[in-house]
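S.,

As promised, the LNDFFVEH run. Input:
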Amino acid sequence: MTQHLVDPHAPRDLKAFIADLPKAELHVHHVGSASPRIVSELAARHPDSKVPTDPEALADYFTFTDFAHFIDVYLSVVDLIRTPEDVRLLTYEVARDLARQQVRYAELTITPFSSTRRGIDERAFMDAIEDARKAAEAEFGTVLRWCFDIPGEAGLEAAEETTRLATDDRLRPEGLVSFGLGGPEVGVERPQFKPYFDRAIAAGLHSVPHAGETTGPQTVWDALTHLRAERIGHGTSSAQDPKLLAHLAEHRIALEVCPTSNIATRAVRTLDEHPIKEFVRAGVLVTINSDDPPMFGTDLDNEYAVAARLLDLDERGLAELAKNAVEASFLDTAGKARITGEIDACTAQWLSR
Ligand SMILES: O=C(O)c1cccc(C(=O)CC[C@H]2O[C@@H](n3cnc4c(=O)[nH]cnc43)[C@H](O)[C@@H]2O)c1
Ligand SMILES: [Zn+2]
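Predicted complex:
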């Protein structure tokens, strides 16, 4: 069961502060954010699927033996998303869950290749996510932006298709800001994706590959050198290389840290062994994120509570972490100033109580 991942140690007041704190989420996957209710509903609609409909069985199903097992389970949930209406509903509900946690801005990682190869029409797919994005902003005030990621293990065919979908002016959605690379890292060398990242960057997209989640620091170097990464998804193994940490700190290349994810996929053994403290000590810009929250029995608020414990933070420290995410985001200057102002106002109000 994954419930034990929710941090029981955070003091009550700090939990309430985190719940109130305006936040930005920079590393959260689209299908990986499907709530148990949505997954159960979709699984009931598709009885041929192996995904359980019962929420308790679902919690067991979302307990992973290793990263490869996690990806298998992830793809079984991807298999449940079969129509543009499924895509729209999922996206809108994800935004609702983010808004409930005072997330003002989120960059959602979407894998369009996984949907188009399963038969969803590409135009209808783009319309569905854009429709949900506009509805979410109007109704919840949460601004959504997209990162389209290549599922690296699916090879260069997937890279070509993702790049086409991200750069074709007739298809490219208005909310798209960045280009990523996800899935397993072992045997999926970053340099082979350089031509695809070059095209995406030339089309104005930011580079945000996963790297160093399940392999060593060389993968992070490769992401920086070959894919011109502006932020790194996870980057956990960077802690093994002091020169890399110094490089990340000097160039303000943020790490998208997702502590509970790293435990759930068994990339890191225990939270107390998570290298987040080393990142902070080295002066790296650390952002806190949730990755695939319901699958890992967490949410963004809980990840902030975990970070508060691991880094021994009070309200001011948590506000700084929230501001790191705003700084590292691809929001425009006015958008950054607005959310930073909200974080400061919320913190001042809490401290004056
Ligand atoms: O869709 C397919 O048919 C397909 C075929 C072969 C391989 C893949 C993938 O590897 C998909 C990976 C999938 O996982 C997403 N994801 C979610 N959380 C994480 C994470 O923490 N680290 C890496 N990848 C993650 C990723 O966005 C892809 O959608 C697919
Ligand atoms: Zn991820």
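The first strand starts at residue 23 and ends at 29. Strands lie at 23-29, 103-110, 143-151, 176-182, 206-207, 210-211, 231-234, 254-257, 286-288.

- D.
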